[in-house]
Amino acid sequence: MPVEILTVPCRSDNYAFLIHNSETDETALVDAPEAAPIITALEGKGWSLNTILITHHHDDHIDGVAALKSKYGCVIVGAATDAHRLPPLDMEVAEGDPLSVAGHSVEVIDVSGHTVGHIAFYIPDANAVFTADSLMALGCGRLFEGDAPMMWKSLSKLAALPKETVVCSGHEYTAANARFALTVDPANEALQKRAAAITEARAAGNPTVPSFLSDELATNPFLRPADPAIRSNLGMEGASDTEVFAEIRSRKDRF
Q: Taking the model in full, what pTM does it have?
């Protein structure tokens, strides 16, 4: 079925995503950092809103839910394990649960780490995964509630998706992530080229999200703890992937 994904900038650096099926005229939203720009985007397209998919409980991903629910009467979907701290849910889901949104089958993936109960939504028909603050462009979310083994397990699930998958993440953090990535993987030519392109895009006021999973696999150090060059740069040639990931995350926290 035909699908259109619209990236909606919100707040200072958040992104929400509208998913529209032109055959059924249904529209879903992933996360609602604030209502106004999402309403503007919907009205500009002449779309209504049928469903909101919530990835996790942080305010900058749910602040607009109540206003959108009031305006559109949409169905609110979120993680069952996070329901106690999300806006009232019409549907609670967990990894592996069947879900259909805007005429498309959606796979729910537990990507706990940034928070416990964070979920991602993978839509094979749209060739897209909505990762919010788990896998990000050239980065990953800070570990506020989970730990490194938990996050590495989550990122490994996302890394196993088809390489052509479009990664729709939740923030415009890519320029800072690129500067950090070059400190642990400085000889990576693909990363060097991507960092230059990011600098150019941001100078022109253009977004760097979404990104392709293939690019993340080639340049995102948080997906590359097995890379020999990164291990050598960190002095961790004999460590496990989880240990190397933990060191990269720790260094980014201090960067």
A: 0.96
